[in-house]
Design a protein that fits this description.
Layout lengths: L1 H4 L6 E5 L3 H9 L9 E4 L3 H6 L4 E4 L7 H18 L3 E6 L4 H9 L3 E5 L10 H6 L5 E4 L12 E2 L4
Parallel strand pairs: 1-2, 1-4, 2-3, 4-5, 5-6, 6-7
């Protein structure tokens, strides 16, 4: 992505929940920069193993718990103070919202990629981040009706 070239790789944080969101996030980033990007996700066997060769941090996945969202916020805040990224890129889900919003507040550029699982309807995270992201990408033309200012792009 040309947009990523403006930032040195050490200034990029990639954050998402595990599973498909993480797979899409990794597919969206250039292979040449993968080992220099810092990943933030939840810890489980899959994420631990798939990111074993990458710089990564694990935070609590709040998944509809107000208490866990509070824990996630404080973890994200402290990680942000340590990393100070200029660019935050995410494919969702809710685990990423606090980090992206903290970054936005402190002047980081935020890029959000709506998940490829959404063809006709919006995700909760996408709907929320559409109003705050500096760049917003959708993977299907049908979503341009829901997100008129989005950029159409595909990970395929």
């Amino acid at each position: 992505m040309k947009f990523l070239r403006r930032f040195s790789s050490r200034d990029i944080v990639a954050t998402s929940s595990g599973g498909g969101h993480l797979a899409e996030l990794r597919a969206s980033l250039p292979n040449s920069a993968t080992n220099r990007i810092v990943y933030i996700t939840s810890r489980n066997r899959h994420t631990y193993e798939s990111l074993s060769s990458c710089k990564r941090y694990f935070i609590v996945d709040p998944h509809n718990s107000k208490f866990k969202y509070l824990v996630n916020f404080f973890q994200a805040f402290f990680l942000f103070l340590i990393l100070r990224p200029r660019l935050i890129i995410s494919t969702g889900a809710g685990i990423s919202i606090p980090f992206m919003m903290i970054g936005k507040f402190f002047g980081s550029k935020v890029v959000f990629i709506e998940t490829g699982a959404r063809i006709y309807s919006t995700s909760k995270t996408g709907k929320f981040m559409y109003q705050y992201a500096d760049r917003f990408f959708v993977q299907y033309e049908t979503l341009l009706e829901k997100y008129p200012k989005a950029t159409l792009g595909s990970l395929r």
